[in-house]
Amino acid sequence: MHLRQIKPEIRILGIDDAPLVSKKILVIGTVFRGGLWLDGVLRTEVEKDGLDATEKIIEMTRSSRHYGQVRILMLNGVTIAGFNVVDIQKVCKETKLPVIVVMRQMPDFNAIEKALQNLSKPKTRLRMIKKAGEIREVKTQKRGLPVYIQSMGMDLEKAEEVVRLASTHSRVPEPLRVAHLIASAMVYGESAGRSRA
Questions:
Q1: Angle of the 53-63 helix axis to the 88-95 helix axis, nearest 10
Q2: Neighbour count for residue 172 (Cβ, 10 Å)
């Protein structure tokens, strides 16, 4: 999984979830070359506040015809579909791909821990969240707010380089921004005029 050089057209699989409108939540993956070209779209479903996100993401990634070309997985946060926590250590190991987590805000771990008490296996979920590693602030645009990243399978310096490379149109990397737009459109019929991405 060692990446000696980050090429401009490195294949990134960006994963984001759809709005929480039912018990089964759509999850979209977009395969991008850097932050410029969309090469493919993947989909799966996970349970809202469930415990299946890790396995579903591994299955979606490994079964894709793009799998052989993808070099990095990128997630919009370590939880999807509410508090369905992704074990990025396991995803990294099973897919043999580095994982970068991108967040728009610094997580409030006290609030997260409190919210988890309302769900099954709160200690398991919290353990997966905490083992996602160090959080680093990254400025991807000259102006505006930063993002916050974690990485598994590659050092934070390389992860920061990838996030900056892929953030061509906003502070959020294109694979995640576009995955969010597609996921929203699949649920509502169109994406919001102003994406939260």
A1: 20
A2: 26
